Amino acid sequence: MPFFFSGGSTIGSAQIVDNEIVDADINASAGIKKSKLEFVGAKVTKTGTTLQNNSNELIIPWDSESYDTDSFHDNSTNNTRLTIPSAGKYLVVLNVNLDPYASVIQWEVRLKLNGSTYLCGQGGSAGNDTVDYDARSVAYIGDFSAGDYIEATSEMGTSDNHQILASSNFSILKLN
């Protein structure tokens, strides 16, 4: 499991500096190898809103990266995707915020694998509030192959226009 340490930290007799175990009395029974510990993942966001203009499924575009360690995302080509660079187990998290509105609608967000398979989703009634935004969040842990890609989708049971807010985000973390 990857870990990220900033500055210097100590675990037992192992001192960690700049993400590397140094000056450690580590043996095989401790389950820790003297090697560089790495964080592998990405978090993408939006710089503005995206119009959800009808009841069709929207594949949400992401045009900004908070971090991207291994080229999971490209802001200009296929910017709706997080693409798996190497096989393994990953945690994928989606947080989508929708503008405030007065009417009640049905709204669902989902994670979609390779453009066809839904991994998970969350939906239900939203709205009836002209001040606070509505939010949906989903998380999924699964095994993926190199080249697989995951997209975030939004779908509403209405023909009204609504905005996916810039505060939304989509992230991935390699677990092994």
Which short descriptors sum up this protein?
mainly beta, disordered N terminus, 176 residues, Jelly Rolls, five-stranded antiparallel beta sheet, elongated, single chain
Task: Explain this structure.
With 176 residues, this protein is an all-beta fold. It has 2 domains: 1-39, no CATH class; 40-174, Sandwich (Jelly Rolls), CATH 2.60.120. 0% of the residues lie in helices and 53% in strands. The protein contains no helices and 15 strands. The protein has strands at residues 8-11, 14-17, 20-22, 41-45, 50-52, 58-59, 64-68, 81-83, 88-98, 101-113, 117-129, 134-144, 149-156, 162-164, 169-174. Strand 1 (8-11) and strand 2 (14-17) form a beta hairpin. It starts with 7 loop residues before the first strand and ends with a strand.
Instruction: Tell me, rounded to a whole number, the average pLDDT.
Output: 81
> N-to-C SSE series?
EEEEEEEEEEEEEEE
Helical percentage: under 10%
CA gyration radius, whole angstroms: 20 Å
Terminus-to-terminus distance = 5 Å
Q: Shape, please?
A: elongated
Give the number of domains. Answer: 2
Query: Which consecutive residue ranges, at least 5 long each, have pLDDT under 50?
Result: 1-11
Assigned CATH class of the largest domain: Mainly Beta
Name the structural class: mainly beta
Provide a count of the helices.
0
What CATH architecture label of the largest domain applies?
A: Sandwich
CATH topology of the largest domain: Jelly Rolls
Q: In percent terms, what proportion of residues is strand?
A: over 45%
Number of strands: 15
